[in-house]
Design a protein that fits this description.
Blueprint: E1 2-9, H1 10-22, E2 28-33, E3 40-48, H2 53-63, E4 66-71, E5 89-94, E6 96-102
Antiparallel strand pairs: 1-3, 1-6, 2-3, 4-5
Helix pairs in contact: 1-2
Length: 109
């Protein structure tokens, strides 16, 4: 058995949740915050049999797409202002960061 932990952008959260339910996978959703953009994320915890890992990964890939987003950089506080760029920059966001962990035992009460 494996525990799949997938950190996805909030914009993809409902679509992924619906897709998992459609394929009869149970998941726990946790609100989380990313460190880089300080934006809202959703972390899914999905317990699956070893044989189902690839199928769940496919569902995640199909429903969590990366996209370009303009972000305003944070001004340096006491740092070197010479390298500070005062205008928004385009960065790639979205997609999913996935961790697959072995599960020694699982109980449901």
């Amino acid at each position: 058995m494996k525990l799949i932990m997938a950190v996805v952008q909030d914009k993809d959260s409902n679509r992924l949740s619906d897709a998992l339910v459609d394929k009869e996978y149970q998941a726990t959703k946790l609100a989380s915050t990313g460190g880089f953009l300080k934006a809202g994320n959703t972390t899914f915890m999905i317990g699956v049999k070893d044989k189902d890992v690839d199928h769940v990964l496919e569902i995640i890939k199909d429903n969590c797409k990366s996209r370009e987003q303009l972000v305003a950089p944070i001004s340096p506080m006491g740092g070197n202002a010479d390298s500070y760029v005062p205008y928004p920059v385009e960065v790639q966001v979205g997609g999913a960061t996935v961790f697959i962990l072995p599960v020694e035992q699982f109980e449901k009460f």
